[in-house]
């Protein structure tokens, strides 16, 4: 079918009726735009990330020659449809070929500024008019070709002159961390939430402040203690503590996976003392006990393949709980927070002690405390 285009009415207004109320740009950007352009990976392996930047978590990868379903472009990153999810890849390793139309900027609203603007069947005033749009009308822009926007017009393809269309970035959706008042100088936040106190299922989200604005990095499923969150954490209660905590040493049974946190490799003799009567309560020690404690948790276990210490009960108050970690696990814990090994490693690589990261754990109904 012949491509349709659109231009500015220079001398007269068409009598053709125009259906008002085009869909917004956001609704159409979830489809691959500019079907005549093919986007192929040029790198042998290219990471797909959860956001437009290398600080965001890796959610998968694509390989050389693979064709991508590109939604939009954000800076030097392409937003793509990746296995039913939204992902981002560096445009440096993607080659676009075809008609050469460029993607619209992500999260942009397009508004007509002329009193009447012709919709034409080609990218120029020499093309026939197929209708018109009016001042203030929102356009569903597919892509840009030279000084013309390609739009969806009453179920057809049309073009309008970009000289008479104003593009403005829409406000980003407000994130839950935007309303937090207790973050201080923290620029990275791990948020662990549950529907209520009694569930062991959790939602894990990570956020980072970039150029003064919070951005979401990762979302993952996780688990809490077998009995959920604790109203008041006690040793052995099988509940995870609520609250805001700093992040301590990263650990694992293997070499450092790439975290910037202080990293400690676990040995067969490593234990965490959970004896409330010991002077070493809630500290990392090495066997043998030699009378220094009567109870300690073995660290050399698969759950601790990778993880980090949540700095809970730093005062080491006897009986208030010990050995609270973020680690590998998919069922439930004895009071820690856990998620898949892939997600734990991704978070470890993302965490940066220079950004004063914190972890907040709370039922959704009590997030206003933070």
Structure commentary:
The protein is mainly beta and 370 residues long. 4% of the residues lie in helices and 41% in strands. The protein has two helices and 28 strands. The strands form eight sheets. Strands 15, 16, 17, 20, 21, 25, 26, 27 and 28 form a nine-stranded mixed β-sheet that branches. Strands 6-5-4-1-7 form a five-stranded antiparallel β-sheet, with no helix packed on it. A hairpin with a 2-residue loop joins β12 (148-153) and β13 (156-161). The chain is elongated and about 90 Å long. The relative contact order is 0.14.
C-alpha termini separation: 57 Å
Beta-strand content = 35-45%
Please write the string of helix (H) and strand (E) elements.
HEEEEEEEEEEEEEEEEEEEEEEEEEEEHE
Largest sheet: 9 strands, mixed
- Please give the radius of gyration in angstroms: 27 Å
Helical content (DSSP H or I, runs of 4+): under 10%
Overall pLDDT score: 86
Shape: elongated
Q: Would you tell me the structural class of the helices and strands?
A: mainly beta
Number of strands: 28
Number of helices: 2
Low-confidence stretches: 1-35
Spell out the blueprint of helices and strands.
Layout: H1 25-28, E1 37-41, E2 45-49, E3 58-63, E4 67-74, E5 77-82, E6 85-90, E7 94-98, E8 108-112, E9 116-120, E10 129-134, E11 141-145, E12 148-153, E13 156-161, E14 165-169, E15 188-194, E16 201-210, E17 213-223, E18 229-230, E19 240-241, E20 243-252, E21 263-265, E22 270-273, E23 284-286, E24 296-298, E25 306-310, E26 325-328, E27 337-339, H2 341-350, E28 358-363
Parallel strand pairs: 15-28, 18-19, 20-21, 26-27
Antiparallel strand pairs: 1-4, 1-7, 2-3, 4-5, 5-6, 8-14, 9-10, 11-12, 12-13, 15-16, 16-17, 20-25, 20-28, 22-23, 22-24, 25-26
